[in-house]
Amino acid sequence: MTLLKLEKVTKRFGGLTAVDSVDLEVEEGEAIGIVGPNGSGKTTLYNIISGVYIPDEGRVIFDGKDITTLPPHARTPLGLARTFQIPRPFGSATVRENVAIGAMFGRASMDVEEALKEADEYLKLIGIHQLRDKEARLLTPLEKRFMELARALAMRPKMLLLDEVMAGMHPSDIDKIIEILQKIRRDEHVAVVSMVEHLMHAITRFAERVVVMHQGKKLVEGETAKVLNDPRVIEVYLGKKVM
């Protein structure tokens, strides 16, 4: 079943076309990587999917519903959750309370008591339950990323958008994140779309399919191993033609 469909989405900023007529489909429970060098249009595309930007042209269809003009807060209850490259916690709230907010305003719309219990479960899943009573502002950058992932999962999404969530992590932590993501895909049929710049070893282990962005357009799309060995993709990353 097709969960997300982008139809010729385009976004311009003045004279710059950041995303240029991009088509994309994501199936329920699928794992997809969106890659590309700086300035390729990845973040703008993510912002269109999550509702931060409304495209100048094209449509965004999620779970059969046209959400092109819906703001982010209206997309969350439909089952669309996102993490950010720079985590944005409620600093004075505890880790548990931060994650509970995801459960309260996510697809299940839980009350406070239910949300706090749900938060405990996802903190255990992520492996940071011991931090549950710590103020979020006191967390390390890595701990904030784990907390933000737990909060996104507590929303019980149908699709999870990950924005560089594994960047800067130790390989063992990356392995842990990939294991968790594979579990929620298997158990809850959540589609996971992960955006990265250079962490290719994580994408090769996680993504079934890769979309490569370049200068606002979709350069290549297909099976992960084939795409990452495509001469056009290598040229984009190395900045020179492959002989």
Which characteristics define this entry?
243 residues, 9 helices, alpha/beta, four-stranded antiparallel β-sheet, 37% helix
Residue share in helices? 25-40%
Total of DSSP H or I helical runs spanning 4+ residues: 9
Distance between the termini: 40 Å
- Note the overall shape: globular
Please state roughly what percent of the residues sit in beta strands, choosing from under 5%, 5-15%, 15-25%, 25-35%, 35-45% or over 45%.
Answer: 25-35%
Low-pLDDT segments: none
Structural class: alpha/beta
How many distinct beta strands?
10
Explain what the structure shows.
With 243 residues, the protein is an alpha/beta fold. 37% of the residues lie in helices and 26% in strands. It has 9 helices and 10 strands. It has helices at residues 42-50, 72-75, 95-105, 112-126, 141-154, 171-188, 200-206, 224-228, 231-238, and strands at residues 2-13, 16-27, 31-35, 57-62, 65-66, 80-82, 159-163, 191-195, 209-214, 217-223. It has a 6-stranded mixed β-sheet with strand order 6-7-8-3-9-10, sandwiched between helices. It is globular. The termini are far apart.
Compose a concise summary of this entry:
This protein has 243 residues and is of the alpha/beta class. The protein has helices at residues 42-50, 72-75, 95-105, 112-126, 141-154, 171-188, 200-206, 224-228, 231-238, and strands at 2-13, 16-27, 31-35, 57-62, 65-66, 80-82, 159-163, 191-195, 209-214, 217-223. The strands form 2 sheets. A 6-stranded mixed β-sheet has the order 6-7-8-3-9-10, sandwiched between helices. Strands 2-1-4-5 form a 4-stranded antiparallel β-sheet, covered by helices on one side.
